[in-house]
Amino acid sequence: MNIVDRFLKYVSFCTTSDENTNLTPSTPGQMEFARYLADELREIGMQDVSLDTNGYIMATLPESKVESQKSKATPVVGFIAHMDTSPDASGKHVQPRIVKEYDGKDIELSEGIVMETAKYPELLHYVGQDMIVTNGKTLLGADDKAGIAEIVTAMEYLIQHPEIEHGKVRVSFTPDEEIGQGADHFDVKAFGCDFAYTMDGGAIGELEFENFNAAYCKIHVHGVNVHPGSAYHKMQNSMRIAYQLAVMLPRWETPEHTQGYEGFYHLIGMNGTVEETTLSYIIRDHDRARFESRKRELEHLVRKVNREYGEGTAEIEMRDQYYNMREKIEPVMHIIDLAKEAMEAVGVTPVVKPIRGGTDGARLSFEGLPCPNIFAGGENFHSRYEYLPIKSLEAARDVILEIVKMVAAH
Questions:
Q1: Quick check: helix, strand or coil at residue 396?
Q2: How confident is the model over 319-339, as pLDDT tens digits?
Q3: Nearest to 357 by CA among 225, 229, 202, 235
């Protein structure tokens, strides 16, 4: 199966994750897909294929004969991708199509739904290329089924070409990355790698070893409901109090007004009545000190509301999700140099940039597995306007192959 057909097969599985189920994997479609992948890995000749009850797949490509005879062991490299897709857009009944030799014009995905170059100018980088798009009603799932297709296809190629020297390679496919739980049950010791790469980046050439420090926050606001006709000095409308708290935050420190290394507060959910309202936030910043300051600011605003409306009016829950992997990658920067060299060897220009988000690799790096992020090739992730240039998909596969060969050569 070629890499395009493999990717198109993968996106037929509905694997949307759901943070509200309290299950791992969070949705049954992920386990269905995991069973399919485990069988496929066995069929192409991978060894030690395992699928645990939490939906984590691990498998081994044994070292080639020449490598096994060397006196000095070749480092074990791993490649990781996630099986779930974002709940930000539907992943059910994905119906992709291939746009042949893109002409640089707006793309009509379906009636009334158009991907415009004025809004998405990155499209013009791919003029003349074939690309996979959606029908405008679902996301595509390149995040991160493109990564899985790239890894599986690269492993299949190495198995079919035993003349290529390589060390032991490990692969893993994980559930629930999109809801921040992809590394929750990942067994770093069992994976047994010296270092790894997540194939979970965006456009061709992306190489990332800096990511946000991240926290999740819920603020519960308690009100008092009284008939509006007799509410004078009695009612406390929790929705209005919650709104007052929300607008205390700097209006320009939000995702839509920040870029590069700039952090933000992001209100991702608001649900309420007069008596009870909940605000849900994610907090992001590349700088650890500013990250801690942002958390303190939210705690300060809650105290301020309580001083005005009475103790206990607002309550805050906050938990850290992951930290900037840079501090764990800097001592082993040779793995970044290796990825750069591999990209250049296959004709890809490395684009080293900070992730305005996070990957499983961020948490794994803090658990003892240095794990930077390499492009999977797609753009407009989590959206009905998601697309995947086929050359980018193929280039990521080639980068994996080159890394494996270079690790053996070094």
A1: helix
A2: 998 999 999 999 999 999 999
A3: 202
- State the Cα–Cα distance between residues 206 and 342, nearest whole angstrom: 13
Looking at residue 157, its pLDDT comes to: 98
- Separation between Cα atoms, residue 139 and residue 131, nearest integer Å: 15
Of 22-31, 39-48, 67-76, 358-367, which gets the smallest average pLDDT?
67-76
- Distance, CA of 107 to CA of 94 (rounded, Å): 17
Q: What is the pLDDT of residue 410?
A: 80
CA distances from 190 to 56, 185, 231 (A): 12, 11, 62
- Give the span between the Cα atoms of 239 and 220, in whole angstroms: 10
Residue 311 to residues 59, 221, 246, 271, 275, Cα–Cα distance (Å): 54, 11, 18, 21, 16
- Band the pLDDT of 70: cuts 50, 70, 90: confident
Place of tokens 């405008």: 136
Beta strand extents in 63-222 (DSSP E only): 77-82, 97-99, 107-110, 113-115, 131-133, 169-174, 195-201, 206-208, 213-222
DSSP 202-234: -STTEEE--B-EEEEEEEEEE-B---GGG-TTT
CB-based contact 390:377 (threshold 8 Å): no
| CA dihedral of residues 398, 109, 33, 173 (deg, nearest 10) | 40
pLDDT beyond 90 at 72? no
Q: Give the angle 288-294-299 at the CA atoms, nearest 5°.
A: 130
Q: Is the per-residue pLDDT at 216 higher than 80?
A: yes
Token pair, residue 310, equals 């009475």
Indicate the pTM of the whole model: 0.89
Q: Which residues are catalytic?
A: 84, 177
Element (H, E) at 261: none
